[in-house]
Amino acid sequence: MVRQYYRLFIIITLCSLISLITSWKLYRSAQNILTQQIAYITHSANLPARTTITSHTAQATGWPFGAWQRLSDVSISTTFSNINIAGATPTLLIGGTWIDWARSLIFKTALPLHAPDILVLRFLQQQNSLTARLANTHLDLQKSFSDTSTEEPLFTGHFDFTHGEIALSTQPQIITLGHTKGTARFAPQAQSNQALLSIALTSRTLTAPSPLMHYAALENIGAYFAIIPTPIPNNSTSLPPFLIRIQELGTDLRPLNELHTSSPLPRIMVAGDISTPSLNGSLTLTFKNWQPALRMAVNSPWLQHIAPPDLTSFLQKGLHNPRVAALTSHPLSVTFSIDHGIAKGISTQRMVDFYTQHLQPYLNQ
């Protein structure tokens, strides 16, 4: 009996040693591949025009579970269609587990990228900029061809991050996203009426400086939209025009005083087309399960402060009307035109006055 256990121990030990030696050889080969790929990517001759990538020390890690290279102080800058794009992160991991390596070899995809710290992205056009700060970001890239006859490249990226902050240079407020994942597709040689960039993402939570945040939490955010180039007029020196096609931009509203409700949550959705740089177009606003949101709005001190007493009384009576209760299952929809970024019929001065008199006091609380 002892001799049998001894043989079993020897067999297990030999198998473990063989596995470790094989894993070490695979690890060294994988590290050589990573070193060559990083040198190829960062070499200026292999990059698109006006694109630079810089990084400092590289550290090999991952054995025996996989193979990674840890890059420090990574930065990238490029220009596309008069938009300057820059990104930076203190740490970037390239590589993955042996499962990631096998998937990359079988499906011919790029190895995953992981920025465990803060990844900062900035998009600058003339004097306007958009800055995104993303935490714990994962990115899987894939290159394919949308048309095999013309070999037009199509880049697909699957991404996720645990926390994100988005800020515009024209607005002092910051929008925060929590637990976001999605897919982006980029076709740099897209012609007119073809999607240059399409994005589909979902986010668990969203917070923004708005009076709405005092009464409801935004959950289950979904955004599905595409940016489509449009023909450039002859002898035009302005920025290239684009069409922003919003298939859906929606969120659930969870009242703060009903955090544990089991009833369906109200959901607001927006869809439509907006052309740039004029910001003209049309949008359709759809409101599902709207009765709880209407009750929350009517009972809010903010609406009671800005609305005439007759209007609030009318809305209170409407909430208890049996006909209104019967319409709860039917969504409310309204379509309106957009003129230079503002709903038609609403002047810019009226928006400024409404913000100054009613919104700003609550934002500063």
Radius of gyration from CA coordinates: 27 Å
Question: Rough shape?
Answer: globular
Oligomeric state of the chains? single chain
Low-pLDDT sequence parts: none
Strand fraction: over 45%
Q: Can you count the beta strands?
A: 15
Largest β sheet strand count, sense and barrel closure: 15 strands, antiparallel
Order of helices and strands: HEEEEHEEEEEEEEEHHHHEEH
Computed structural class:
alpha+beta
Number of helices: 7
Tell me the distance between the termini.
Answer: 78 Å
Number of domains: 2
Q: Which range best describes the helical content: under 10%, 10-25%, 25-40%, 40-55%, 55-70% or over 70%?
A: 25-40%
What's the rounded overall pLDDT mean?
80
Provide a descriptive summary of the structure in words.
This protein is an alpha+beta fold and 365 residues long. 27% of the residues lie in helices and 46% in strands. It has a 15-stranded antiparallel beta sheet that branches. The protein is globular. Strand 12 and strand 13 (280-288) form a beta hairpin. It starts with a helix and ends with a helix. It has two domains: 1-189, no CATH class; 196-233 and 242-365, no CATH class. The protein contains seven helices and 15 strands.
